[in-house]
């Protein structure tokens, strides 16, 4: 493969520039006080921390809250270093400087094998790659909430920023009181020494301008907040119906817009008759909208309420025209992917041993073909954005995972400079990767431009949302294992096929980087090329396709389907070699002790091997994603032909844990999200039109079908890793493997069908 | 027409066919009640009409003009939360929170009718969808609130 060595050649070209191996110091993201919003009475000490007159802390918050509890977790880091109660940390939306960009998310996109890239002794090429991408990411400053990366990314920068602020406040107090800094103690944000005391607000004027160096963050034994479950700060407003989601933004003179896009993906409106719509009461105007951000074109109707706008948009007479490139069709795509698997070699993500030799010498072979369908995100809050275009300026209020991308889109549509755009990030009614796209932002700004300075809230119906997603792509994978005469696995070959996501998204997110559209995308092969099992020979490749369907990041991305493929096939190998699925895995995890420990913990807590009531069976699965290792045991039965999952026991090693309560919440969330996909999730496209329209045809697990989920966290002192996604991938294979134990029928396709 | 919402009489000039949801949200700015599906399939828009849980996205406002409408905004107050709201905080139920207004209103209607619901009764009554998967905490919080209400205190 020509592209196979792309990483090494890219690194070779830049290698001469590399002068040191250290990861970029967190101090490089400290930022100047000027980066924070100027607010009356508050004094900024760096780009993250302001101190209010009353001694409270204001934290610049660059990450979006979409249910994952990140606003609480990041505030905890700051409260910890400043010895403040969590309730006294207020949040303020961060600006656009590159210190707020997400470095960890981009570094994690490198396709290195996790067993090679852990710890201090990682190979040089991996150190180089991580350093280089980190450097590029730091310069680019792409602010995105995704990839389960928020705590991993801000763990050092936020603690260093808070500790630096604390040190300057203590220095100021020491100078005022003429005592050594070491004599000062801090309790709940109040400094004490030799009978004197002051809160931070009383010392911040004197502390301003000093940025002490040589700062040490607390050692784990000094932590009071980190590692203890803290109630989430966003929950009280959410139970009172007071949290402001995108659709809850209310402004004086607000208009409402409804959208109708071409039902044929990528299509356009060929002929539009507005008369019937404009004749309806409450309808203000009809606006044709372009295909922004690789979405689909269509039209919007502005009305005095969302309901008037929706009535209006349905009344428009329109003839849709399919795209010149032809219409997409999932049956045809499936056949094309199978053909790709059989005829193309793809990009090799991992190779070890000599697979061809092992295959030649094999006494027997096990082959299997696995597949997974397109999926929609179906956030409970459909896509929406509120926009006002007035006097050459654009203001938007939007539930987004990518505020800068939203800003750039608004600037592009309104044809103004980026600094003429103000973005207000609201609470997100679910994200799951859908809100890493900004197609709807372009629509809202285009409609607002037609509204003469009046603000307009554009929102999608459920049908538009389901029919115009950036879907989790369909993937197929062929597995081939070779066994020797003793029945030992000697080699594993996996070839997969499906659309790449990252290169196209990068082109949308950072047009400057839009060159290598066909660069290998780790997300296509993650969960296949990076398995922890020590089979001597391995070969994993992926054929990246371009099917024409808009595709995007869906919670846990490639892992969401690849873990189902790989962990189901591992189960097949255990069965074929007549071993217990747990014992088989442990046997091949001798060089992966962390994985073995997580697997064993889940098995122990689930009572693996103990008797179950008649008609029930257990399945087990293990998977690493976003730096975290998760094992799950699912207990399954069949009731009137329906799959019923009763209990899911989950063990997780996600490094240092900030808020254990949130980890449990995210595990429960991932299990339910994964179970909806495993039992029901499927998007079919016929003649370019998505067939699923609303929840009855794109089903979700309900309360009565929800299993009891138990979370067991492995204590760890490692760098924090991902939490929001890693518990999703093992769910489908754990359930599928349990179904095999129950029925003897191997499940090789999603959704699971008996 | 006159509407009685959260104990207050409000005048509305809304089209009689307009679903109650949009009258609440876009005319009266009571945005706690959410839009999720528009076909009464998800329950995000659940409010009480004369104490009954109804899905307001398909309910023409003219059908409820003479009835008492209650939304999440009047379920409790920050000073005096409804036992369910207190239980929701104690069990740390919400994640993104978007479906939770409807979830709480459905649970409140259930406890009105059945102060000590069994798991089976909770299964039958709580058909709202939650994409974040908060279901097991919803169940635990309903039991917690029921126990507290039996004792006569807040959760």
Textual characterization of the structure:
The complex is a heterodimer of chains A (754) and B (155). Chain A is of the alpha+beta class and 754 residues long. Chain A has 3 domains: 18-239, Aldehyde Oxidoreductase, domain 4, CATH 3.30.365.10; 246-324 and 383-459, Aldehyde oxidase/xanthine dehydrogenase, molybdopterin binding domain (Aldehyde Oxidoreductase, domain 4, 2-Layer Sandwich); 330-375 and 471-743, Aldehyde oxidase/xanthine dehydrogenase, molybdopterin binding domain (Aldehyde Oxidoreductase, domain 4), CATH 3.30.365.10. Chain A has 22 helices and 27 strands. The longest helix of chain B is centred in the C-terminal third of the chain and has 17 residues, at 135-151. In chain B, strands 2-1-5-3-4 form a 5-stranded mixed beta sheet, with helices on one face. Helix content of chain B is 35%, strand content 12%. Chain B has 2 domains: 2-74, Beta-grasp domain (Ubiquitin-like (UB roll)), CATH 3.10.20.30; 83-151, Orthogonal Bundle (DNA polymerase, domain 1). The N and C termini of chain B lie far apart (38 Å). The chains are: A alpha+beta (754), B alpha+beta (155). The interface between A and B is large, with 61 and 58 residues.
Attribute tags:
A: 754 residues, Aldehyde Oxidoreductase, domain 4, seven-stranded mixed beta sheet, five-stranded mixed beta sheet, 22 helices, 27 strands, 22% strand, disordered N terminus, B: alpha+beta, Ubiquitin-like (UB roll), DNA polymerase, domain 1, 5 helices, globular
